[in-house]
């Protein structure tokens, strides 16, 4: 299956997927990497891996709808089976998400449904949580609200800061995302109406 990755920043999740896809028995290949920022380091990583890249610069579009339309046109050009949001910092319109329903994954640095949105590590610290982590989910119209496929937990230490917590979470991200992408490429996970099916079982 053809995997298209969208990123906005450093692309460490992209890097984890690049490395996983080098494994001969990895059931998918990254067909392109797209960014909404021309200077995203993720583009460097993609170039180093000889992957095709494209930029749809959101500052060049008047509206969210126009940006999403241009992004979707680029995505269609590569004809992916799966679109992976990997640190993609754009809120996508309902039309865009519906067009890719069941083929769009996201990784979010919290144990959803806790802490949708930004600054998740600081919010977990402020709440005095002892457990934090990362979630991989199908993207639906609800921001960070789609059915969760898998989570990985991180213990919060008393001396943790938002930075140290983010580091621990990112380590788990880089393990979890390749596993979930592999499962998707193997046809093991599917999106139901508002649930995930894993090997045909309702998760
Ligand atoms: C990560 O923490 C990820 O959870 C969030 O974006 C951050 C940056 O990801 N979605 P990356 O290093 O650009 O892959």
Automatic annotation (TrEMBL):
Keywords: Purine biosynthesis, Transferase. The keyword Ribonucleoprotein does not apply. Its EC number is 2.1.2.2. Residues 2-180 form the Formyl transferase N-terminal domain. (6R)-10-formyltetrahydrofolate binds at residues 64, 89-92, 106. It catalyses: N(1)-(5-phospho-beta-D-ribosyl)glycinamide + (6R)-10-formyltetrahydrofolate = N(2)-formyl-N(1)-(5-phospho-beta-D-ribosyl)glycinamide + (6S)-5,6,7,8-tetrahydrofolate + H(+). Pfam families: Formyl_trans_N. It comes from the Bacteria. The active site is at 108 (proton donor). CDD domains: FMT_core_GART. InterPro entries: Formyl_transf_N, Formyl_transf_N_sf, GART, GART_AS. Pathway: Purine metabolism; IMP biosynthesis via de novo pathway; N(2)-formyl-N(1)-(5-phospho-D-ribosyl)glycinamide from N(1)-(5-phospho-D-ribosyl)glycinamide (10-formyl THF route): step 1/1. GO terms for molecular function: phosphoribosylglycinamide formyltransferase activity. Gene3D superfamilies: Formyl transferase, N-terminal domain. N(1)-(5-phospho-beta-D-ribosyl)glycinamide binds at residues 11-13. The record marks 144 as: Raises pKa of active site His. HAMAP family: PurN. Belongs to the GART family. Catalyzes the transfer of a formyl group from 10-formyltetrahydrofolate to 5-phospho-ribosyl-glycinamide (GAR), producing 5-phospho-ribosyl-N-formylglycinamide (FGAR) and tetrahydrofolate. This is Phosphoribosylglycinamide formyltransferase. It comes from Marinobacter qingdaonensis. The lineage of its organism: Bacteria, Pseudomonadati, Pseudomonadota, Gammaproteobacteria, Pseudomonadales.
């Amino acid at each position: 299956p053809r995997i298209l990755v969208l990123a906005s920043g450093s692309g460490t999740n992209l890097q984890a997927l690049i490395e996983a896809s080098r494994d001969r028995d990895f059931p998918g290949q990254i067909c392109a990497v797209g960014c909404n920022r021309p200077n995203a380091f993720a583009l460097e990583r993609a170039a180093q891996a000889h992957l095709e890249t494209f930029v749809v610069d959101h500052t060049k579009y008047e509206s969210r709808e126009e940006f999403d339309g241009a992004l979707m046109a680029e995505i269609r050009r590569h004809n992916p089976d799966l679109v992976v949001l990997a640190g993609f910092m754009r809120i996508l319109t309902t039309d865009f998400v519906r067009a890719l329903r069941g083929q769009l994954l996201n990784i979010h640095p919290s144990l959803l449904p806790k802490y949708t949105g930004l600054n998740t590590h600081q919010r977990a610290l402020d709440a005095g949580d002892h457990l934090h982590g990362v979630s991989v989910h199908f993207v639906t119209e609800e921001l960070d609200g789609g059915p969760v496929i898998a989570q990985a937990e991180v213990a919060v230490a008393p001396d943790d800061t938002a930075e140290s917590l983010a580091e621990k979470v990112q380590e788990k991200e880089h393990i979890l995302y390749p596993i979930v992408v592999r499962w998707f490429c193997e046809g093991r996970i599917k999106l139901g109406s508002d649930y995930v099916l894993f090997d045909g079982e309702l998760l």
